[in-house]
Amino acid sequence: MTWLDVQPLPRNSRRRALVFLCALVLGLVGSLLYVYMRPAEYRAVGRLKIAPAAVVMPPAEAKNAPMVTSDAASFLTEVQILTSRPLLQNVLDRLKQSGAIPDLGGDPVTELQHMLHAEPIVGTQVVQLSAESRRQELVAPLVNTVIDTYRQRITDAYKGSANGAYSEVNEEVSRLDQEVKTKRQAVDAFRAEHDIVSIEHKENDVLAQIERLSQSYTDAKNRQAKAQAQLQALQSSATAGKSVVRPKDDPILADIANRASALREQWQDLQRRYTPNYLALDPNTKALQARLESLESQLRVQRDASARTNLTEAQEELAAAQSAAEKLRQDVVDNQKQAQEFATHLNEYKALRQDLDHLEDMHRAALDRLTKLQSSEQERAPRVEVLEAATPNSAVWRPDYQRDALMAIGGSVVFALFAAWLVDFIAGPPIAPIVPNIMVQPSWMSSTLGREFVMEPREPRSLTATAAGQLPAPPTLPRQLEDSEIVALIDAGNDEAQIAVLGLLSGLSTEDLVALRWDQIDFSAGIIHLARESQRTVPLEEPLRQLLEARRKRESGDAPVTVFRTTKEERLGIDEIQQLIQYSAHDAGLDRPREVTPNAIRYTWLSFLLRQGIRTLDVSRLAGHIPNQDLVAYMEIHSPRTRKPLDQIERSHPVMRQLANGMG
Question: Are 418 and 311 in the same domain?
Answer without folding.
Answer: no
